[in-house]
Amino acid sequence: MFSSIFAKKTSYTSETLDIIRLIRSENVGVRTFYSLVKMFGSSAKALEQIQEMSLNGGRQKPIKLCSKSAVEQELEKLSSVGADVLTYTDDHYPQLLTHIADAPPVISYLGNSRIFNQKFCAIVGARNSSLNGQNFASTIAKNLSQNAVNVVSGLARGIDTAAHKASLPNTVAVIAGGIDHIYPPENAKLFKEIAETGAIIAELPIGSVPLGQHFPQRNRIISGMAMVTLVVEASLKSGSLITARMALEQGREVCAVPGFPMDPRCAGTNKLIKEGANLIECFDDVMDLLCQSDVKQKVGLGEASGYDNFTTMPLDENIVNNSSRLMVLEVLSSTSVSIDNIKQSTHLPLPAIYIILLELELAGKILRSPAGGIIRIF
Hints:
Blueprint (H helix, E strand, L loop, with lengths): L13 H11 L5 H11 L2 H14 L11 H13 L3 E4 L18 E6 L8 E5 L6 H16 L3 E4 L5 H9 L3 E5 L12 H10 L1 E4 L11 H11 L3 E4 L7 H11 L3 E4 L10 H8 L3 E2 L3 H17 L22 H10 L7 H8 L3 H13 L3 E3 L5 E3 L2
Parallel strand pairs: 3-4, 3-7, 4-5, 5-6, 7-8, 8-9
Antiparallel strand pairs: 1-2, 2-6, 10-11
């Protein structure tokens, strides 16, 4: 697909293979992945236990583990298009991204991974953007690139495209499908330019077609790679507002460009400013925020919440039994229930509740809401 000047790995550690196997296994989402690694100490040990845990959670047949051969095939496919993978344990993995609660355990990429740990500003906005909006995004992106700040965006039409083009080669595009799916198709030339000079990132396995639900998932990576997210134009139901909300939840700065009140493409950005987002009128405003963010980053974002901050969950077979599992299941419903409410209702210790919820999740009996609550699947 692409020839790359950056050497690809010819071999991978067993830890890398195990990490990919675990996250690709049935019913293992990102948060479940990190909980399992924290619980068992490694991906390899988690792989030895999760089938039994799924049976304990009420599944009739054990969940399907991703095989080593399937991982090897995935890596071969990546290599065939000039791509490679990074896990959250790799040095070139974006370190700022590890500070979000749901950092992808594995990303595939095209291009130069050395860019990932440089300074980034996220620029996002409307797909049906105005010419003025595109010009403003281009101006900001070009100036950022000339001042040693990279731009990360989502390769979408409109503002994203303008930001990427103006910041080449100092730009990273995060896409919603596999690394081999170019969306939108008209950005094929831009995709190639970014892959050859900057970098393309994908969380989903190669061959995955981008679906609607994948775009919000993609957005958390865009905001997670940057200390500042700039929204240029956005409607009230825009995906860019989702990115802004995620940035706030991640403890990052959000800024927005004000727009004409009668233009629906500006309703979202104006709303962000009303709610406290930093108002941006020129490049200097963005640089001021980035300088403030540098200080914040030096002070420290805290430990990486994606991995280190999970509660230790010692396995206590005397507490985690069929009776306690039934107690937890009975307090769950089709509406979200918080873990605190589960604890109050069952009087079980939190470590036991965490283990039972993991079992139920692996069994496909529950879902976690974006806010962290638990939803039962009937």
